[in-house]
Amino acid sequence: MRFGVVVFPGSNCDHDMYYALKKITGSKVDFIWHRESSLNEFDAVVLPGGFSYGDYLRAGAIARFSPILNEITRFVDKGKLVLGICNGFQVLTETGLLPGALMRNQDLRFICKHVYIRSENVSTTFTNVLNKRQVLSIPIAHGEGNYFIDEDGLKQIQDNNQIVFRYCDPSGDLLDTFNPNGSSDYIAGVINKKGNVLGMMPHPERAVEKILGSDDGRLILESIIS
Amino acid sequence: MKATVKVRLKNGILDPQGLTVKNALIHLGFKNMKNVRIGKLIELEIENTKTEEAKKIIEDACKKLLSNPVIEDYIYEISEE
């Protein structure tokens, strides 16, 4: 399997993701500059975290018009895999490849800390080595991760089993005090209907070795190659 | 042609920034402050266009980039200059 990590001006988790993918999956990984327009050689593409275009206007709003995004839309149509982390998730909602939008955190603060999330759908390509309701400790680092979707949209993604991760307490219960940013229905990650595009605010690439405080993020990367 | 675009969070969507500013205003003594909503104001200058054409261009720009239709609405005003 061959991975590509897209680099926008302002991406800052691209090297972490490159390192994590290489180490955990043992696959070939390449950086893809956002002005490129071919993804032919790749099987999976990651949109990493960061502040593409300085988050001007809205997070992800300008990156969405980078040439590579047209190609990513075609890539998704072909059934190839796309994973968006943090700013990458914001780019995917702005592009319309994932439902909803990411708004300013409810308490207005930038939050950088380990949080707990639990798996809600373990039949996806990104979660198939996880157990249902398995609790993972994975860091978040964002100012705009407050997932919003209107009532009809929420019902749709619930009915289609598109909610992949929810924020929870250490034992896996859903509590407002453990919903760090005010997200609708505690949502930390959603997948598209077809099941080949996942967006999540937590950073699995920052939790791949015990020395980092957790290596639970490995499970997501391992799922992709299993 | 000049245009002023206002992009605002849709009604019913929580605006934590507005809420914080409202609380600060009340704290400063503006006791009657019932609600504060914060949006964006974008000024555009458009070359070589007539009003009808400019409207189309602005609508297109608002839909494609200036607003996110999931959470925001926009309104705009055009002035000939």
Description:
By secondary structure, chain A is an alpha/beta fold. Helices cover 22% and strands 26% of the residues of chain A. Chain A has one domain: Class I glutamine amidotransferase (GATase) domain (Rossmann fold, 3-Layer(aba) Sandwich). Chain A has helices spanning 14-25, 67-77, 87-95, 151-159, 218-225, and strands spanning 2-7, 28-33, 44-47, 81-85, 101-103, 111-119, 135-142, 146-148, 163-168, 187-191, 197-200. In chain A, α1 packs across α5. The N and C termini of chain A lie close together (10 Å). With 81 residues, chain B is an alpha+beta fold. Chain B has two helices and three strands; from the N terminus they run βαβαβ. A three-stranded antiparallel sheet of chain B has the order 2-1-3, with helices on one face. Chain B starts with a strand and ends with a strand. Classes of the chains: A alpha/beta (226), B alpha+beta (81). Chain A binds chain B through residues 57-58, 61-62, 65, 93-94, 100-101, 103-108, 148-150, 182, and chain B through 13-14, 16-17, 20, 40, 65-66, 68, 70-71.
